[in-house]
Amino acid sequence: MNKERFEKGMEVRRAVVGSEYVDRAIQNTDDFNSPLQELVTEYCWGEVWTRPGLSRNIRSLINLAMLTALNRPHELKVHIRGALNNGCTKEEIREVLLQATIYCGVPAGVESFRIAQEVFKEEQQN
């Protein structure tokens, strides 16, 4: 493991999805899944998310489209919050989800809109 890349990844990961979420993930780490946590933090967050080619908000919007396409509701919820943390607007998120609905299918889009509304409601209460 590259310690510097891991630390950069942890910094970006916390900034995007929130320290509370990251802390829960780390607390649930054991001998079995610790290599996965290291891999995700070092390569996903430390290598790719730190690249200069795209802004964090663009990366977030791309993630929303991909997670809709893959029908990954748990990760979608996390990344909708991340998109908001990265400065994406509800309107931008809506437009990405509409675009994904056309290319990924109505059931995937309906589920993604449902999840987004849930996140927006939760964020409003905080």
Automatic annotation (TrEMBL):
**A Gene Ontology molecular-function term?**
peroxiredoxin activity
The domain of life is Bacteria
Would you indicate the residue range of the signal peptide? none
Q: Where is the Carboxymuconolactone decarboxylase-like domain?
A: 36-118
Alphabetized PANTHER family for the sequence: 4-CARBOXYMUCONOLACTONE DECARBOXYLASE FAMILY PROTEIN, CARBOXYMUCONOLACTONE DECARBOXYLASE-LIKE DOMAIN-CONTAINING PROTEIN
Q: What is this protein called?
A: 4-carboxymuconolactone decarboxylase
Please report the organism this UniProt entry assigns to the protein: Effusibacillus dendaii
**What would be the name of the gene that encodes this protein?**
pcaC_2
